[in-house]
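Chain X:
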Amino acid sequence: MTDSSNDEIERRTSFRLDMEKELVEIFWADEKGQEHNKSIACLDFSRGGVKLDCDQHLLINTAVTVVFKSVNANNKKLYGKVLRSIKQDNGWFEIVLILEKDV
């Protein structure tokens, strides 16, 4: 007899970290070139991408900078583009970014 969970195929190719809604700062420019920033919850993080919980829609392919805050001055910045922006039942958007490889 086999365990059914072992039979499931894992489609992710990189390590994933549950961020438990850790706050991050995001920066982006809209289609008119106006710059925006916002503190939002990071839901998941992996080498390939980031999943965010945001109260507004971001257009696909929008360039976004994500700043992970730390207790010291060395905040980590990651750069990516919006891959998905899906409206949830609660009215907020699940934003998925694909990270740039070599920044």
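Chain Y:
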Amino acid sequence: MHITEYLKQHDVNYEVHSHRPTFSSQQLAAEEHVSGMIVAKPVIVRADGQYYMCVLPACYKVDLEMLRSLLGADEIQLAEEHEMEKLFPECEVGAEPPFGNMFGLTTIMDESLKTDLFIVCQSGKHDQAIQININDYQELVHPRVLSFSFHLH
């Protein structure tokens, strides 16, 4: 199912923005003319064999050691590209929307996104973004909210 179908099915307001193809969340922020703090990027990790979707601002990076500790995991690592292809078969690799529940994944949102009015994210395609109210996002996804990232300089 495409993200727009999912949002319509759940009666959530959103906007779709078309843009030149982007291949990083910071490029998406530039194309959309918004701060990297508003672009929600998903990072997939595998902790003790279980996949998690971590959602954080484009200009932040996951602190894997902190996340490992918060999850109570023995080991944690970033998912590899071949794993991403299996987890998100309907999406272009690197353009996954931050809706882990759509894909059967627990979603963990960095608390730095909580103060935004809305977020912008990939739609599953490199040339299309979705804008959604942060409250609607949280109500739909029910992410676990933790502090697990740091700002890139």
